[in-house]
Each structure stands twice: as structure tokens, then as C-alpha cells.
Design a protein that fits this description.
Blueprint lengths: L2 H20 L3 H5 L9 H10 L6 H10 L4 H12 L4 H10 L12 H16 L10 H14 L5 H4 L4 E4 L5 E3 L8 E4 L1 H8 L3 H4 L12
Parallel strand pairs: 1-3
Antiparallel strand pairs: 1-2
Length: 212
């Protein structure tokens, strides 16, 4: 997808996530997400914060507080943002849906898989259905496969050929060895590449499925 299509997909995902969150019970907001140590409300806060990032000075202070750990910084900032009322988090997602502001360290190419996967972190954990748009998931899968940190998908899945069953997309081993293939919907492959293996596994097939 080009930049314009990507931004439209991001805006649509923000609005649809707001719709999903608006219907949650207080217990569901506090439930664990697929991200270890993150509640549903923490993931929602993380997504809501993307178009309204803290300033440079605030991020420096957060980095010091997190002792230089990006993952700890990411978690702690989201948890603090999640302290606000849930209806405010929903409102922020809608209010900033069309915003193209981003943290300085990222780009729209990273935000596409980020919002798709975090939507699943919430929905799958709560047993809710949230289909991924195929075009956006394809763009997200391509980005994750090529980006290295933080998922290292090519390293973790070395020797395996990934093939989407609902999109013209494949990656990995290119020797034609059918015994090394894992196939499934592009959304499930995206979850696999971002480390959500148990959520992806029921939707995958192929001879190499047992190796993931």
C-alpha cells in the first residue's frame, strides 16, 4: 500500500477499535491482553497515544526512569496513560483517528502492523472476532518481515516458508521445499511473525507447522 492508503487504513482501524472498546465491560477492560503484563486498557492506551506522542523532553525523562529499556519505557508510558477513564481513551481514538502525527522514532509503515496486531491483542484475548483488512495485513506482514528489531521474524522463522492463503504474499525459504511451508490467512501469519504464535497457530497449516 502507498502512504495515502496506509493512512486511510490506520484511521479506519482506530475508529473500529474505538467501536469495539466502547462495548467492553469494566471487567474486560482490566483483563490481560495477549501482551504479557499488559491489560486491555494498557494496549488501548498505547494505541491512543500514537498520534499524540510525548515531547522530546518527556521521552528523555521516561527513558531515564526506564533505565534505558525501550520495552519498559513503552509499557510504563502506556500504563500511566491508561489511568484515565475508559471513555476518554475511546474518545481519543476517535478524535485523533485521522491524525498523521507520530512519535519521532517510527513511521506510518510501522503503525500499520502496530495497530492491526494490537487490535488482535485485545480481541483475541477477549474471545472477540476482529477480522484484519487483507491489504493492510499484507503491507504489515511485509514490513514486519523486513524490519528486524523488535520481532526478528526472519531470524526466528529461519528455514520456514510462509505463504498466505488469502493474499498474494509469501516470504522466507525460497528453495521450493514444500516440507518447510507454513500457510494460512495473512492476518494469522502477521500474528506469527510478531510473536503471537499461540493465537496464530489454530489458523495455520502446512508441514512445518509443528516447527513454529
Amino acid at each position: 500500500m502507498d502512504a495515502e492508503s496506509s493512512w486511510r487504513a490506520i484511521a479506519g482501524e482506530r475508529r473500529s477499535l474505538a467501536d469495539l472498546l466502547e462495548g467492553l465491560t469494566p471487567q474486560q477492560w482490566e483483563a490481560p491482553s495477549l501482551c504479557a503484563g499488559w491489560r486491555v486498557r494498557d494496549v488501548a492506551a498505547h494505541v491512543a497515544m500514537a498520534p499524540q506522542p510525548p515531547g522530546f523532553g518527556a521521552m528523555v525523562r521516561e527513558g531515564v526512569r526506564a533505565r534505558g529499556s525501550f520495552h519498559r519505557l513503552n509499557h510504563d508510558v502506556a500504563v500511566r496513560h491508561a489511568e484515565r477513564a475508559t471513555d476518554r481513551l475511546v474518545a481519543e481514538l476517535r478524535e485523533h483517528a485521522d491524525s498523521r502525527r507520530l512519535p519521532a522514532v517510527t513511521s506510518y509503515r510501522n503503525i500499520v502492523p502496530d495497530i492491526l496486531v494490537h487490535g488482535q491483542d485485545i480481541a483475541v484475548a477477549l474471545g472477540l472476532d476482529r477480522p484484519m483488512p487483507v491489504d493492510a495485513a499484507t503491507a504489515g506482514a511485509t514490513r514486519v518481515w523486513t524490519m528486524g528489531w523488535p520481532f526478528w521474524a526472519r531470524r526466528r522463522l529461519r528455514g520456514i516458508r510462509l505463504r498466505a492463503t488469502d493474499a498474494d504474499w509469501s516470504a522466507g525459504l525460497s528453495t521450493g521445499d514444500g516440507d518447510a511451508e507454513v500457510r494460512g490467512p495473512i492476518g494469522a501469519l502477521l500474528l506469527l511473525m510478531t510473536g503471537r504464535t499461540e493465537a496464530a497457530r489454530p489458523h495455520l497449516s502446512g508441514p512445518a507447522r509443528a516447527r513454529i
